[in-house]
Amino acid sequence: MPSKRIKFETGEYYHIYNRGTDKRDIFSDVYDYERFVLSLKEFNNVEPVYSLYLKNMKDAHFRRPTSKALDVGRLKTPLIEIIAYSLLPNHFHLLVKQKEDGGISEFMKRMGGGYTKFYNSKHERSGSLFQGKFKAVHVDSQNYLEYLSAYINANSEIHKIEKAEKYRWSSCSYYLGEKELEIPVNKQTILKNFQSIDEYEKFVQDVVRSSTERKDDVKKYYLE
């Protein structure tokens, strides 16, 4: 469940996010990112999903297993629909639509527990990985939905991640037609309201600019 009580309604959109406990990194290398991305696909199923982790235990490099190797079967009925996502070293953002009653809570329970178990064993640690229960905000308008898609897609740029890496672990490049993704993402929910990909890219950059300015302005008041 999220940290603040919220009633998830099927058919509604939500911004889901969380970060590492004590602001620690939750992704330490490329295999951690890949494992989380795989989880976005494999745990999104009404049917029970067997452990992704156990199949991967004997791989010394913890390389990302494929769905075929895991033998977890095809996606039948998704719990949620993913609209956009981004993964940064110490936090993640998801923009989702609930497809089944209880879908978000079930999906996040699988995600949080499965990834924590994987990460802790791989990095020889114990205890909580995330800062409490996940956070959730109801998206109650189309304008807000479009804004969040841009904010999430370009979140690494807002946080001034190195340019070469900035869109690697988000759905942004998929929106811009630059690459395909390994997981289903419904970008048409957003792009149908723009005349072209170029128009959406301009909108993303406007959101980056305004978000960065606000972020830098607030920093002036931080105590060093």
Question: Describe it for me?
Answer:
The protein is an alpha+beta fold and 224 residues long. It is 38% helix and 13% strand. A four-stranded antiparallel β-sheet has the order 2-3-1-4. The longest helix is centred in the last third of the chain and has 23 residues, at 197-219. It is globular, with a radius of gyration of 17 Å.
Strand residues, percent: 5-15%
Distance between the termini: 35 Å
Uncertain residue ranges: 57-62, 65-73, 218-224
The largest sheet, given as strand count, sense and whether it forms a barrel, is: 4 strands, antiparallel
**Order of helices and strands, N to C?**
EHHEEHEHHHHH
Shape type: globular
Helix content: 25-40%
What are the key terms here?
disordered C terminus, 224 residues, 13% strand, alpha+beta, 4-stranded antiparallel beta sheet
